[in-house]
Amino acid sequence: MVTFPVGGMSCASCSGRVERTLSAIPGVERASVNLTMAQATVVGNVSLDTLISAVREIGFQVPVVTESFAIQGLSCASCAAKAERALNGLTGVMRARVNLASREAMVAHVPEVVSFEGLQQAVQGVGFTLVRTRTDEEPLDLAENERLREYREIRRRLGIGALLLIANMAVMHGHWHGMEAWLQFALVTPVQFWVGWPFHVNAWSALRHGGANMHTLVTVGTFSAYLYSVLVLLMPELFVARGVAAEVYFETSGMIIVLILLGRFLESRAKGKTSQAIRSLMGLAPKTARVVRDGQELDIPLKEVVVGDSFVVRPGEKIPVDGLILKGHATLDESMLTGEALPVERGAGDSVTGGTINRTGSLICKAVKVGRDTALARIVAMVREAQGVKPPIARLADRIAAVFVPVVMGIAVVTFGVWYAFGPEPSFNYALLNFVAVLIIACPCALGLATPTSILVGTGKGAEHGILIRGGDALETAHQIEVVVFDKTGTLTLGKPVLTDWTGDERGLRWVASAERRSEHPIAEAVVQGARERQIVLAEPTRFLALPGQGVQAEVEGHAVLVGTLKLMRDHQVSCQEIEGEFQALQRQGKSAMLAAVDGEIVGVLAVADQIKPQAGEAVSGLRAMGIEVVMLTGDGETVARAIAGSLGIDRVLAEVLPAEKEQEIRRIQQSGRKVAMVGDGINDSPALARADVGIAMGTGTDVAMEASDITLVSGDPRGVVTAIRLSRETMRNIRQNLFWAFAYNVVLIPLAAGVWFPWFGVLLSPVFAAFAMSLSSVTVVSNALRLRRFRVG
Question: Exposed e or buried b for every residue in 176-204, given b needs 16+ CB within 10 A?
């Protein structure tokens, strides 16, 4: 039986509909819905996911919360897989992902069904610890603090272990009158028990909970060599009598522990760099804000700022929260969020974003969004969520990692048996050393780290350049894109008409713009704005008449002014023959051209157009250079669309497309078997963004478009599309390299450690070299992922 909340029910018919829907699901024995308590109770063998999907399909809501938790005690891929299975096995958990690289668990759950305590108990049941962060503390901070604590502990143990091992090597190569074995025992015992203690504790924890992990392999392998050596030391006659060489392998167990600890040390240090980009983002927000309360300026902690507060920002200071400028003018550096290097001018009435830097000027602003609602907080949350989503390419590695340790232990046991039964004398020694080598050489960590480390670095690098990638699946699909469809307005163009041409003199433009002042049409606004940018002082029209579909008629300073179409001029007997050629030439360029007459005489032709973004041409040429077809989709007429597309070098144009038809056009391209990316910024683009294989939204657009997209370009620069696809290709190449190394390493070296090649080539692998190779494998994977930090735009 499961009980879960249902929102949106307002009457008995609502609850009845929900109850009937749930009862009709195969596997449901009984369903009842309580309208007063707004909850449903279901008895049967059906997943909660199925029940919630059914409720949502009929228009009601089930509140699902997605939370991030720090998870402690993870050491390898099998640990992460075990913790993930434990969370996903809980009723009430819709989806759980555990990221080994960042040591975070991202859990989507129904709080009323499963509490934090329930999640915690499930994780504790498999030997790990789930930690809920404070409201002012990020899971990443907690994970980083835990990593630093572990890093320092590893460094301490490694230093002491290395010193003891050096002393042990001196003993092995010196003359100690038959006491060498006892001295080795004295020096290696602290290494085995104290230096290797973290491995043994984790192995025991895994065993208590019915599992095995990398630590199990290390513990079994080193204790096999150590205990055998102790027995040889205490009872040598037992082995001599059986024809076994009475040799001790203390140096083997000690070196294995120290070398693996060295690998962990290097890996921990490298992993700290993988999340550097997101930590840099989180560090953009200042710790305090200077607010104005009761007429006084007060410095308060950032978390105490509330919506509506007035705050002051001086030159050189960071904007604390998202706000609106009430007073002042400043130059802001927004490069940390948008990737744009050039500073931007902001004045009264403009919006400001928390985390950006005020280079010049003082501002008084009003707080609009605070805490986790700010743009910076949402960007950080988006990047963190993306880093927790595994791409499809990682699933094979996850499946192998889940069964890796038991399989390796089985191989090790078979290796021991075969060598003991059929190996050359002393067969027991050979069997023991090869058994230990197999256990030590196997590395599930490399498999577990291959994908998440690359995703961490890749998505973080994207965030540095103002590209927010929602998840690993989007990152994987983006590298396969063959066609990019741009919705013209707001992506290739600025989305705002501007006055581009005026053929008359300044006085004529003054009369025209003054006449347009009373109009609310976007073209009129562009004409007025264009005149003001030319420092023209406008007059107030004494008479004004809007002529729908034709233009405007007004009186300005005693002059009769007409602005509009050719038909409007002809209707008022205004001769236009001399400038009809100019008028038609502007129209052929895709611009909205109009004629202007004063007191019955033509004074000029003006044109208004949605200006092409300066970076649009570079974006199109960049995509074409990558072998990607570029398509422009617009609601404009064929002539205007062709003119704009031609100036950008776009060959394929889909013109006169209604908003409702955009999604159908994307579907039509997909039906040809090609992977499609859609780039848009408006609400009417959201169905097409969702339909595309990869939806890319401009950060300057609507929240709805950004929600429907897979990738968001914070700055609205179309060149970000090129960068996003390049970053996807580089990241996927990096992941494939990591997975190849992880698979090849284990496929090649496990048989070598087992002695498979010995009958033909006489080659065996020492357990010490096995430990070195095992340490190197994880470090190689993480270091390779870090190469993505060198990714550059352009």
Answer: eeeebbebbbebbbebbeebbebbbebbe
CA 668 to chain CA mean position, Å: 29
In DSSP notation, 161-184 reads HHHHHHHHHHHHTS--TT-HHHHH
**pLDDT the model gives residue 233:** 84
Per-residue confidence (pLDDT) for residue 624, from 0 to 100: 93
The alpha carbon dihedral of 379, 382, 384, 390 has a sign of negative
25: buried, middle or exposed (CB in 10 Å: 19+, 13-18, 0-12)? middle
Both tokens of residue 81? 């897989």
Mutual angle of helices 616-625 and 638-648, in 10-degree steps:
70
Q: What's the CA gap between 398 and 447, in Å, rounded?
A: 8
The SS3 assignment for 630 reads strand
* Chain position carrying tokens 């390493």: 745
Cross-strand partners of 109: 65, 93
Q: How far, in Å, are 87, 133, 507 from residue 67 at the CA level? A: 13, 10, 63
Q: What are residue 366's phi and psi, to 5 degrees?
A: -110, 130
**In angstroms, rounded to a whole number, what is the distance separating the alpha carbons of residues 16 and 58?**
12
The answer to whether the CB of 445 falls within 8 A of the CB of 77 is: yes
- 361-385 pLDDT, tens digit each: 889 999 999 887 888 887 777 776 6
Q: Which long-range contacts (CB under 8 A, 24 or more apart) does 140-143 make?
A: 140/102, 140/104, 140/275, 140/278, 140/279, 140/282, 140/384, 141/282, 142/70, 143/70, 143/102, 143/103, 143/104
Is 487 among the catalytic positions? yes
- Residue 73 is given by DSSP the state S
| Edge-to-edge strands, sheet with 694-698 | 467-469, 711-713, 694-698, 676-680, 483-487, 629-633, 652-654
Q: What is the dihedral of CA 132, 134, 136, 139, to 10 degrees?
A: -20
Q: Quick one: which of 445, 463, 461 has its CA closest to 397?
A: 445
Q: In whole angstroms, what is the distance from residue 679 CA to residue 483 CA?
A: 11
Residue 439 is inside which H or E element, if any? helix 427-441
| Phi then psi dihedrals of residue 132, to 5 deg | -85, 135
Contacts of 248 (CB under 8 A, 6+ apart): 181, 184, 185, 229, 232, 233
Gyration radius of the chain's alpha carbons: 35
Tokens of 359: 């280079």
The 10s digit of each residue's pLDDT in 122-167 is 998 888 888 876 544 455 555 566 667 778 888 999 999 999 989 9
| CA separation for the pair 705, 487 (Å, rounded) | 12
Question: What is the distance between the alpha carbons of residues 421 and 697, in angstroms, rounded to a whole number?
Answer: 66
Verdict on whether the full-model pTM lies above 0.90: no
For residue 523, give both structure tokens. 């073209």
CA angle 235, 240, 243 (to 5 degrees): 140
Which range is least confidently modeled, 203-212, 240-249, 517-526, 556-565?
Answer: 240-249
Task: Single out the catalytic residue among 309, 322, 473, 487.
Answer: 487
3-state class of 443 per DSSP?
A: coil
738 sits in which H/E element: helix 719-754
